[in-house]
C-alpha cells in the first residue's frame, strides 16, 4: 500500500472496510454488526480495523442468530438507522431467509413506499478451495429473483469501494456479495487483478452500470465477480488464437444493465455467459432471455452459450469441484466452439 | 452411575485415537500450503495440499464425545457439527473411510462429495453439518422416528455454546419437550464461537438452564472430565431410552487449538491458551486408570501404540487411495 499520491493499491477487503469506515465517519446512523466482525475484523477481512476506530457501540459482534440480527437490522433501519449486517458466508442465509425475502424485500412495497429499509448485507460467496457444498455457493441469482432486493457483486477493489458507499447510501436493502477468491486474503490464492488502485477520497459507483473490462469484436463474455478474472485470462489466451473477446462485468444484478448486454452483443453477435452460480433458473438464463427477446434486432452469428455450475451442489473433493466450477480453459473452449458454430437461417 | 473398567479403558483409548488423529491432521493439513509452492504474499493457501478447505479440530473436547458415545449403540443416532471428528470417531465411524473422505478420495464415506464438515455414515447413524444450529432438528426427527417405530433407540444432537443462540435451538427444545422425544442435546461449551466469547453472546450463563423454559431437565457438567460426562449422559440417555423424554446437557470443555487451522487467535488471551494444556483430560485419565489399578504402564503403552497404529493406518489408507473421477461430480443429486 503506497503513499497518498493516488497510486495506492488496496485489496478488495481493504477497500470494503475503508468504504464502511468513511460512511461511518460521515453518518452517525451507520453501524456494523455480524459474527466475528469486531476484534476478528470479519472472517474475510471486510470489517478489519473498524472496531478500533469506532468502538463496540457501532461495531457489534452478534451471537450466532442470523434471523435475529438481520431482522434487527431491518427494525433499526425502519427507525432511520443505516445498519450493515454482515453474514459470514452467503450459504448461511437459509437460517435468516424469512427476514430477508418476506420482510426486508417486501415491507417497502407493502407499505406503499412508506417504509425505508437501508440495510446492507455484505456476505462472502464462491468456491474453488474445497470448502464443500455448504460453504462454496454464489446464490446471487436467488436474491435477484426476489423483487425488492438490490444485488451487488463487485469484481475488484475500486468497484468494491464505490459500490459499498453507494450501497450504504441507498435507501433500499442491498445484498453485497464478495467472492472470497478476489478479496486478497493472506490465506487463499487469489486473482491479483482484483487488487487495484483505490482513491482515498470517497466516491460512488452507481448501480446498474456494467463495465466493459476488455473491448473485443468476436464474442461477448458476460460475467461478474471472480469469473471476470478467469474471463480475462481466457481472453488473453483467445487473443493469441486470433479471437477477440469483449468482457462485460455486470457489477450489479439488481438493477441489471440490460442495455450494456445488448449493445455489446449487437457488436460481437456472439454471447457466452460465464457464471459461478448454478446453471438453471439463474443469471445465465436471464441474460440469455434478454438476448432472445431482442432477436428481431440482434443478428446473432451463433446460439447463446452458458457456462455455470451444472445444477449440482459444489462437491468437496478437488477434482470434482474443479470439474463443476467453470475454469479458464472451459471459457476458452466455449468461446472457440461459439466462434466455430453458426445460426442456421 | 459408575463406569466399568472396560468402559473406562474404551473411553481412554478413544480419546487417544481422537487426539492423535487431530494432531496428525494439524501437520497433514499444512502440507503443501506454505510458500514457496504458492503465490507471493500468502501466509498459506487454504485450497492447497492433501486436505484443502477449512479444518476445525476438536483437540481438547474428547471427553464430551467419549463420555456420551460410550452409552450409545449402533442404532442410536448422533448428529454432529462443523467440528465433527471426535464424535464421529467415538460413534465408531470407520476411521479409514472418514479420513479418505477428508482427503477427498474415492474410498471416502461419500467418495469425496462431503468433506470434513459433512461426514455421513448411515451405517453408524452419524451425520453432521457445517451450518450452526443445524444438528438439533434432525436429531429430534431421528428420535421421533424411533418412537413411532417402537424402538428404544435414542438420538443425540451435538452443538457448540455459540450455536445455542440459533433459532433451531429453541424450536428443537420445544418440540422435544412437547413430544417427549428420546433425544439428548449435548452442548460443548468451549467458551468461544470463533472470536465471540460466550458471555458476550448468551444472555444466561448456562444453556442447561434454558431447558427449564421448555420443561426439559438441564444438566451442567462443570469440568471437562470424561467420567463426569459419562454420568450425566448416562442418566440422560437411559431416561430417553426408557420413555422419560429429552435432556439438555452442557459440558464445560476446552478448544486447545484455534477455531480453524490457520486461525491466528488474535482475539484469545495468550494465558488462556497456554493454561489449557494443564487442563488436558487425557493425561489426567491415564493417571486415574493407573491410580485405580485399571491399567498399569504396560497396558497404557499398549493402548498408546494401538491408537498410534489405528491413526497411522487411517492416514496411510487415505493417502494411497485414488481420487474420484471428475464426472462423478454429476452423480447423486437425486437417487
Ligand atoms: C448458520 C451459521 N452461521 C454462522 C456460521 C459460521 N460459524 C462456523 S463455526 C462458528 C462458531 C461456532 O461456535 P460454537 O457453536 O460455540 O462451536 P465451536 O466452534 O466453538 O465448536 C460460526 C459462527 C455457520 N457455520 N453457520
Automatic annotation (TrEMBL), chain A:
Stored Pfam families: Transket_pyr, Transketolase_C
GO molecular function (one): branched-chain 2-oxo acid dehydrogenase activity
Q: Does the keyword Acyltransferase apply?
A: no
Please state every residue range assigned to the domain named Transketolase-like pyrimidine-binding: 10-185
* UniProt KW keywords: Oxidoreductase, Thiamine pyrophosphate
- Entry EC no(s): 1.2.4.4
SMART domains per UniProt: Transket_pyr
Cofactor(s) needed, names only, are: thiamine diphosphate
Please name the Gene3D superfamilies in this protein's record.
3.40.50.920, 3.40.50.970
* Alphabetized NCBIfam families for the sequence: PRK09212.1 (NF006667)
The protein's name in its UniProt record:
2-oxoisovalerate dehydrogenase subunit beta
Recorded source organism is Capillimicrobium parvum
Source organism lineage? Bacteria, Bacillati, Actinomycetota, Thermoleophilia, Solirubrobacterales
**Gene encoding this chain?**
bfmBAB_2
UniProtKB/TrEMBL annotation, chain B:
InterPro entries named among the record's database cross-references: DH_E1, PDH_E1_Alpha_Subunit, THDP-binding
Tell me which UniProt keywords the record has, alphabetically.
Answer: Oxidoreductase, Thiamine pyrophosphate
What organism is recorded for this protein? Capillimicrobium parvum
Q: Does the keyword Acetylation apply?
A: no
Xref: Pfam families: E1_dh
Coding gene?
acoA_4
Q: What EC designation does it have?
A: 1.1.1.-
Q: Which segments constitute the Dehydrogenase E1 component domain?
A: 53-326
Please list the GO biological process terms of this entry: pyruvate decarboxylation to acetyl-CoA
Instruction: Specify whether GTP-binding is a keyword of the entry.
Output: no
Q: Which cofactor does it need?
A: thiamine diphosphate
Q: Which domain of life is it from?
A: Bacteria
Q: Which GO terms describe its molecular function?
A: magnesium ion binding; pyruvate dehydrogenase (acetyl-transferring) activity
Q: What's the protein called, per UniProt?
A: Acetoin:2,6-dichlorophenolindophenol oxidoreductase subunit alpha
Amino acid at each position: 500500500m503506497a503513499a497518498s499520491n493516488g497510486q495506492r493499491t488496496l485489496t478488495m477487503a481493504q477497500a470494503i472496510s475503508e468504504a464502511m469506515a468513511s460512511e461511518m465517519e460521515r453518518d452517525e446512523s451507520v453501524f456494523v454488526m455480524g459474527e466475528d466482525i469486531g476484534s476478528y475484523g470479519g472472517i474475510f477481512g471486510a470489517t478489519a480495523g473498524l472496531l478500533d476506530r469506532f468502538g463496540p457501540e457501532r461495531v457489534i459482534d452478534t451471537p450466532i442468530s442470523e434471523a435475529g440480527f438481520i431482522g434487527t437490522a431491518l427494525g433499526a433501519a425502519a427507525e432511520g438507522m443505516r445498519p450493515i449486517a454482515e453474514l459470514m458466508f452467503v450459504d448461511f442465509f437459509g437460517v435468516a431467509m424469512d427476514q430477508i425475502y418476506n420482510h426486508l424485500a417486501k415491507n417497502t412495497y407493502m407499505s406503499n413506499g412508506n417504509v425505508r429499509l437501508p440495510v446492507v448485507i455484505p456476505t462472502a460467496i464462491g468456491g474453488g478451495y474445497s470448502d464443500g457444498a455448504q460453504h462454496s455457493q454464489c446464490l446471487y441469482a436467488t436474491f435477484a429473483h426476489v423483487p425488492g432486493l438490490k444485488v451487488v457483486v463487485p469484481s475488484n477493489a475500486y468497484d468494491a469501494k464505490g459500490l459499498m458507499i453507494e450501497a450504504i447510501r441507498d435507501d433500499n436493502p442491498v445484498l453485497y456479495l464478495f467472492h472470497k477468491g478476489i478479496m486478497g486474503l493472506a490465506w487463499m490464492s487469489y486473482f491479483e487483478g482484483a487488487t487495484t488502485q483505490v482513491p482515498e477520497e470517497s466516491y460512488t459507483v452507481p448501480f446498474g452500470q456494467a463495465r466493459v473490462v476488455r473491448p473485443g469484436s468476436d464474442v461477448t463474455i458476460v460475467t461478474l465477480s471472480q469469473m471476470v478474472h478467469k474471463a480475462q485470462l481466457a481472453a488473453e489466451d483467445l487473443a493469441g488464437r486470433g479471437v477477440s473477446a469483449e468482457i462485460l462485468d455486470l457489477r450489479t444484478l439488481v438493477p441489471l444493465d440490460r442495455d450494456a448486454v445488448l449493445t455489446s452483443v449487437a457488436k460481437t453477435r456472439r454471447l457466452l455467459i460465464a457464471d459461478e452460480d448454478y446453471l438453471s433458473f439463474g443469471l445465465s438464463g436471464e441474460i440469455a432471455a434478454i438476448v432472445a427477446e431482442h432477436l428481431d434486432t440482434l443478428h446473432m452469428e451463433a446460439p447463446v452459450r452458458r457456462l455455470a455450475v451444472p445444477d449440482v451442489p459444489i462437491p468437496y473433493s478437488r477434482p470434482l469441484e474443479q470439474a463443476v466450477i467453470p475454469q479458464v480453459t472451459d471459457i476458452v473452449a466455449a468461446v472457440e466452439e461459439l466462434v466455430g458454430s453458426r445460426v442456421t437461417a | 452411575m459408575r463406569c466399568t473398567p472396560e468402559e473406562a479403558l474404551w473411553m481412554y483409548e478413544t480419546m487417544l485415537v481422537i487426539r492423535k488423529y487431530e494432531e496428525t491432521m494439524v501437520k497433514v493439513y499444512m502440507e503443501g500450503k506454505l510458500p514457496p509452492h504458492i503465490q507471493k504474499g500468502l501466509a498459506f493457501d487454504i485450497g492447497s495440499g492433501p486436505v484443502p478447505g477449512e479444518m476445525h479440530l476438536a483437540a481438547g473436547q474428547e471427553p464430551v464425545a467419549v463420555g456420551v458415545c460410550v452409552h450409545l449403540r449402533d442404532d442410536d443416532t448422533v448428529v454432529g457439527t462443523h467440528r465433527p471428528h471426535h464424535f464421529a470417531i467415538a460413534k465408531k465411524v470407520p476411521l479409514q473411510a472418514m479420513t479418505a473422505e477428508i482427503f477427498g478420495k474415492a474410498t471416502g464415506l461419500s467418495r469425496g462429495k462431503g468433506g470434513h464438515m459433512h461426514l455421513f455414515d448411515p451405517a453408524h447413524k452419524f451425520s453432521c453439518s457445517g451450518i450452526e444450529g443445524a444438528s438439533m432438528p434432525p436429531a429430534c426427527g431421528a428420535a421421533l422416528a424411533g418412537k413411532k417405530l417402537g424402538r428404544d433407540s435414542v438420538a443425540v444432537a451435538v452443538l457448540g455454546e455459540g450455536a445455542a443462540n440459533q433459532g433451531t435451538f429453541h424450536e428443537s427444545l420445544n418440540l422435544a419437550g412437547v413430544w417427549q422425544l428420546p433425544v439428548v442435546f449435548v452442548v460443548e461449551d468451549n467458551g468461544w464461537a470463533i472470536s465471540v466469547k460466550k458471555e458476550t453472546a448468551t444472555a444466561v450463563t448456562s444453556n442447561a438452564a434454558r431447558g427449564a423454559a421448555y420443561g426439559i431437565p438441564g444438566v451442567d457438567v462443570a469440568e471437562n472430565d470424561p467420567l463426569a460426562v459419562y454420568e450425566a449422559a448416562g442418566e440422560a440417555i437411559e431416561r430417553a431410552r426408557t420413555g422419560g423424554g429429552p435432556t439438555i446437557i452442557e459440558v464445560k470443555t476446552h478448544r486447545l487449538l484455534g477455531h480453524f487451522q490457520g486461525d491466528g487467535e488474535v482475539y484469545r488471551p495468550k494465558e488462556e491458551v497456554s493454561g489449557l494444556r494443564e487442563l488436558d483430560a487425557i493425561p489426567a485419565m491415564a493417571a486415574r486408570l493407573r491410580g485405580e489399578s485399571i491399567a498399569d504402564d504396560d497396558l497404557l503403552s499398549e493402548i498408546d501404540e494401538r491408537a498410534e497404529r489405528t491413526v497411522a493406518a487411517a492416514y496411510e489408507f487415505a493417502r494411497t487411495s485414488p481420487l474420484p473421477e471428475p464426472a462423478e461430480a454429476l452423480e447423486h443429486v437425486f437417487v
